[in-house]
Write a structure and sequence with these properties.
Layout: H1 4-12, H2 20-35, H3 48-72
Organism: Parabacteroides faecis
Protein name: Phage protein
Length: about 70
């Protein structure tokens, strides 16, 4: 999951931030799913609710990372 949002989150935040570790684990699971063309998941499918949860968590962490980055640059 080498996206700009992912890079920002992992470069600014760490395990002390709520949801960070969960986000990393979810990212790994989704990456494995993509790399294996779905073979890593039962039935070759990933639940939409899981992906939705990931997107919401990513959005929250990304906003937190941007805020933290802005505060550190002052």
């Amino acid at each position: 999951m080498d996206t700009p949002r992912y890079k920002t989150i992992i470069s600014v935040l760490n395990s002390s931030c709520e949801g960070f570790d969960e986000y990393i684990e979810m990212s790994k699971r989704i990456s494995l799913f993509i790399e294996t063309n779905g073979a890593s998941e039962s039935g070759g499918m990933m639940e939409e609710s899981y992906l939705g949860q990931y997107v919401v968590l990513q959005d929250e962490l990304y906003k937190l990372a941007l805020e933290k980055k802005r505060n550190e640059s002052c």
